[in-house]
Amino acid sequence: MSDNTVTEWAVLNDAHEALRTAVRGVAAEDWDLPTPCAGWTVTQVLQHAAGDQIGFASFITGGPGPSENPFAPSGKLDGSPLDMAEEAMKAAADAWATVGEDVQEVSVPVPPGKLPAPLGAGACALDAAVHAWDIAVATGRPSPLTPELARELMPVATAIVEPLRAFGAYAPALGAEDGDDEVAALLRYLGRRPDWTA
């Protein structure tokens, strides 16, 4: 699939490009590698990330949700991983393309269930971007999460992540360390070690 939908939501476009880059970089033999998401393989992180993008789309459009529970991914893919990612990102991008920046309440699959449009689009972007990082570092690739994108996503994270920790969606925040840049600060806030290795 090459028909990538671009929206007016620059942060979502950038996050989708990060996820696309991460998925393209996975070698055929690397899909079963461990990731920073404890107990999950690269395949399972992709399934989760794709399911979340479809989830955001379905809350906006009323269309079908993901075909399996994003929080219990099977680890088995039927088709091309990149096609799966592209289909999910296109669904999310198409849905967000219908939402204006001034909309005060957009239905979203994260607490409290409705968010102002900029925060909702940011939540969708945060999910894609952090899982792009998970996939990239698990497979020994450079981080596709840039300092600029991390800077945009940090206020989103601080606004939405705390209630999600109670559901196990994010680990407890880690303390800041000397030398942290914007990417490291965001990752630590999301409970991830910036220097994670398998």
Automatic annotation (TrEMBL):
Q: Which Pfam families match?
A: MDMPI_N
* Chain ranges of the Mycothiol-dependent maleylpyruvate isomerase metal-binding domain: 13-136
This protein's name: Uncharacterized protein (TIGR03086 family)
Native organism? Streptosporangium brasiliense
